[in-house]
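I am still getting used to backbone structure tokens and would like to learn alongside you. Label the sequence line and the structure token line clearly, so we can match residues to local backbone shapes. Would you write everything just below, so we can both look at the same thing?
***
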Amino acid sequence: MASPLLQVSWDQCLLEPAPDRQAEAMLRRETGAAPGWVRYFLSCPWLPRAAIRLGIDNKLLVDLDFPTVDLIGLVVSQENSCRYCYAVTRMALRVLGMSEERMQQLEQRLASGELEPKAAAAVRFGRRMARSTPLVTPQDLEPLRAAGFSDMAIREIAFSVACVAFFNRISTIPALPPQSWEQLADRWFVRLFRPLFARTARGWRKRGEPTSFARRPEGPFAGLLLQFEGSPIGPVLASALDDLWASPILSRRSKALMFAVIGRGLGCQSSSDEITGVLEAEGLTPADAEQTLSHLGGPGMGADEAALLAFARDTIWYEPIQIQRRARELRQRLSAAQFVEAVGVVALANSLCRLCAALPRRS
């Protein structure tokens, strides 16, 4: 296979898969699935639950078509140099019937921008939001509107970019091994049973139905969640956030500060505003919060919390091998569950802060 990401330097995996029949059975009851990769994350129960529910093809999209989502998955993973997610997306397209020759032609068109106008607009926005240099703004949505996407589809495009960025980080930071995915499409049994695998893979892709919140969102990022009123995306994001804040593995204060560091690093004032209330509830005065965010240290902060904030800052933009080495240093300070939760927090924070910048808050 000639994936353009094969040459990306990639460290040894920082996590050991830990099978847990009871936890996996509970995950199946809660989400309907427990794929093998969740075994890397079972020490932090909310993260695998959120990751399965946030699967883009898992009944979340009402308007946006899957071929556009596939293009977004490829270009965002490429922008983030995520060998793991790129290989998974590429393998899925091969299993669904795309030959290696057609795959390479598609990659050439993505690189040159020679796509039909609507797809090209989605790809340009995906690259723009993934890079966030400078941060994406609502004005960046106008080319999508001009290309003919509906408001619902535009929100789903922005969510899809954020969602792929989330998976890129939970895969890249702990250096999940990409090699088996990179080789899978060309294995003899996949070639032999491709029609069966393709039918199964198509069955996994399910469209969503319009959905309302069971209760109106409150707390951090409630304004963002309300952008998805009527979409199944809103309740799933709300559930992931509720579970993150309720988890006792890392303190609520540490997680709020990690969100604040990432929001400030991206230059997203909306995200900073969303998290201010949590910091105040945790006893941080505005002056204390400013000192902490400016110096990544401050009153009452221990060495582990300072390390979490420095790590959060480094996850905004990175090269895989560099962030994996930084993650290895952090792993040595924390328990497995604390490290996995830290990876989940920075992944969700990076995605929500970028999404918050793209979608204006409703008054």
